[in-house]
Amino acid sequence: MDLIEVEDLTFQNTIKSMWSKKKITFDLGPVSFNFKAGETLAIVGNNGSGKSLLAKLLVGLETPKSGKIFMNGVELNKSNINVRCLDIRMIFQNTNESLNPGLTLGTILEEPLRLNTKLNAQERISLIEHTLRQVGLMTEHRFFYRHMLSDGQRQRIALARALILNPKVIVADEPFAALDPSVRSQAVNLLMKLQRDLGLGFIFISQNLGIVRHISDKVIIMKDGKVIESGKTDVIFNWPKDEYTKKLVDSHQALVNRQNN
């Protein structure tokens, strides 16, 4: 059985233009895909393609106009929204904005446990320390504040916050964009290890085709809210069908060749 199955998901957003009275409508979809536990689905596209909006629909931050989302065969809707909050967790792109500078990391990690579990104080501390070790940090980091961490450590805290409720799926929106190459490599390896150890499903949103090719099993290519092409990663990279996909792959390959020369 598929861990996640999405059927004909659509969304419509209408906003007023800053420079005129005209309304601008952005239509997303229809989007359909599926993947199993332990697999990674990458969503690729330029800025404004709708990939981050799709992520928000999956975690329940936005409500689709139409379509269905299933987890392990059960439809996710308003009646079981708590299930989605627990089972699908998100890592946001900008960790500085998502981590409260006035709270210790322990307090940040404890908040979802207070809201969603019946663990007592000592049990919460034990789980926080275990999760910190899972992401390669020290238990003492629970006493730290955001400003005391490097960019790579902040990303690990964001990952710890996503992991602490033992989800089935993690949606990662450009999680490595702000990291330098060496730290990025460590973060990618950590994600892949956690996926192997925990059997997680990953939805990975990125413009970095090198990482996408390295970690994903399936790829969705998006442009202007539409799915241009989708399929297994090897097929998309080796035999792209759509011209837009070909340009993305060719640009990536040209960059790789320059780096190797």
TrEMBL record:
GO BP annotations listed: transmembrane transport
UniProt xrefs under SMART domains: AAA
GO MF: ATP binding; ATP hydrolysis activity
Span of domain ABC transporter: 4-249
Pfam family, one: ABC_tran
Keyword GTP-binding tagged: no
Family membership noted in the UniProt record: Belongs to the ABC transporter superfamily.
Record-given protein name: Peptide transport system ATP-binding protein sapF
